[in-house]
Amino acid sequence: MPAVNTFRPAFIVVAAGYDAAAGDPLGRMLCHSGTFRAMTRQVREAAVRLGAPLLVCQEGGYSPTYLPFCGLAVIEELAGLRSGVEDPLAGWYAGLGGQTLQPHQEAVIELAAGRLRVAA
């Protein structure tokens, strides 16, 4: 979000891939439906704040059993409603270790944000 806030795009395009989902056999990262919901909320709020049109386009992800829950979270967040369909694995995935931002990761984010501010 520091890059979006600094650059202030006139149009936002999101390639909504789900390779980062916890159940994806290729990405094998720790994102769950709540993660995708939160990221979508941040982008949607930025688009509204900037007055920028937002285009979200479905693309990748290779977990046929888990991707639908992540995709539904994105659609619900964009639509501003909840379907009532609950992700049965969200709590379990959210409880996995290693999801807290580590000090070295935060340092890199701050360094990048500082460089964006200087370039702007």
| Number of continuous helical runs | 5
Proportion of residues in extended strands: 5-15%
- Described by its quaternary structure, the protein is single chain
User: Could you give the count of β-strands?
Assistant: 2
Question: Can you describe this structure?
Answer:
The protein has about 120 residues and is mostly helical. Helix content is about 50%, strand content about 10%. It has five helices and two strands; from the N terminus they run αβαβααα. The chain has helices at about 1-5, 35-50, 65-80, 90-95, 105-120, and strands at about 10-15, 55-60. Strands 1-2 form a two-stranded parallel sheet. Strand 1 (about 10-15), helix 2 (about 35-50) and strand 2 (about 55-60) form a beta-alpha-beta unit. It is globular, with a radius of gyration of 16 Å. The model has no long low-confidence stretch (mean pLDDT about 90).
Question: What is this entry, summarized?
Answer:
This protein has 120 residues and is mostly helical. It has five helices and two strands.
What is this structure's SSE topology?
Layout: H1 2-7, E1 12-16, H2 33-50, E2 54-58, H3 67-79, H4 90-94, H5 103-119
Parallel strand pairs: 1-2
